Amino acid sequence: MAFRDHLKIIQGQFMTSFDQVMLKKSIFLNASVLSPHYVPKDLPFREHQITEIMTILSSALRGQKPRNLIIYGKTGTGKTCTVKHVMEEFIKAAKNGSMHYVNCRIYNSRYRILQKIMKNYVPELEKSGFGLPYLYEKLIEIASGGQQIVLVLDEVDMVKDLDELVYTLTRSNDEIQNGGVSIIGISNKLSFKDALDPRSRSSLYETEMVFPPYSAEQLQKILSERVKEGFVDNVVDPSAINLAAAITSQETGDARYALKLLHRAGELAEHENKTKISDSEVEAARKKVEFDLTAETINTLPQMHQIVLYSIASLSLSGSKYTRLEREKDSGDEGALLFSGEVYEDYERACKKLGKRARSTRWYREYLNDLEVLGLISTIPSSKGIRGHTTLIKMCSDPKSIKDILHKLLWPN
């Protein structure tokens, strides 16, 4: 048989296989509405925040520079969705105003942010070779034409040279004649402003807004609305929605977590050829989602945070060099308790292996604080008599899984 005939048979087999998959009835109606990137038409329980942001931006619609705004809140509290919703409305209403969204995990320097923004006005900037002064002059030129430019900097704390960026953007208004440049910064960390130069801080922090976590009742309402769009009618048991909302509110109040929980529960139900999502599917999805979110968080951490976490995971598996505290006597929780000092020593060794310069103990304490805020570790002050006063550190997830994830990230080859 000729090669071409073989190929036709193979192709036919694949086509039949895909046909079978496509013909299989799905319990999902539109899985994309369960994605954290989906922006719904209505954002329940964020009406107050939407109104407040719109009020601030209304100055731009009148040709005046809006105040700078910093938005805080834990992951999954609707910060980005709310701002993107307002952004859509602003673009419809603005005649001499524009808003630009920048993910600062990807565009994490002053140059890269300015280049991304200015490409909207000067397409040739897509090419490299244009220096920072040129980008800055173009910004001044375009804004001076009467444009009110609003920059949405998501995860603004990830910008490496944040002081320089803030200074450049805020001071640009001194040279702009008729328009202006304003900033909406979004951050998970209330403390990031502490690292800013006092002058940058005073220029940037005109208005601040905090997004609270969602309650169980609010999450139940959010999930119910998404279920209507995301699943076939009557597929998701109401008790499963209530359970997903209750689990999430007890953990973090993170709407992204709740949506992932239902999405994964749906996948598990389909895999087992079930036509209903019940409490058992939600419970089964819980562990998988927790690991997925932990892996996602670790993947997006700055490298120094990853190295510190790697040291904590490694020492949690091998045990403390100074003493072994394998159980918290008060709570009965299992898990190694580590001294902050020994983790720092291991962090220094890991940096050396990676050819990196270890940061000071001051920065190290910041890394620990950030890791705790993200729920990856927990810290407690030691009691008297244990090597003086120090901090004890404990992993909040399986240290072996965390170490394996980080080893692949830090030593990919």
Low-confidence stretches: 324-334
Q: What's the helix-strand series?
A: HHEHEHHEHEHEHHHHHEHHEEH
CATH architecture of the largest domain: 3-Layer(aba) Sandwich
Question: Can you give the helix content as a percent range?
Answer: 40-55%
Number of helices: 15
Number of strands: 8
Output the radius of gyration.
Answer: 25 Å
- Please indicate the percent range of residues in DSSP E strands (runs of 2 or more): 5-15%
**Classification by helices and strands:** alpha/beta
What is the assigned CATH homologous superfamily of the largest domain? P-loop containing nucleotide triphosphate hydrolases
Can you walk through the features of this model?
The longest helix has 21 residues, at 3-23. This protein has three domains: 47-211, P-loop containing nucleotide triphosphate hydrolases (Rossmann fold, 3-Layer(aba) Sandwich); 215-298, Helicase, Ruva Protein, domain 3 (Orthogonal Bundle), CATH 1.10.8; 301-410, Arc Repressor Mutant, subunit A. Strand 3 (148-154), helix 6 (162-171) and strand 4 (180-187) form a beta-alpha-beta unit. The chain has a five-stranded parallel β-sheet, sandwiched between helices. It has a three-stranded antiparallel β-sheet with strand order 6-8-7. The protein is built from 15 helices and eight strands. It has 413 residues and is α/β, with parallel strands linked by helices. Helix 8 (216-230) packs across helix 10, helix 9 (238-251) crosses helix 10 (255-271) and helix 9 runs parallel beside helix 11.
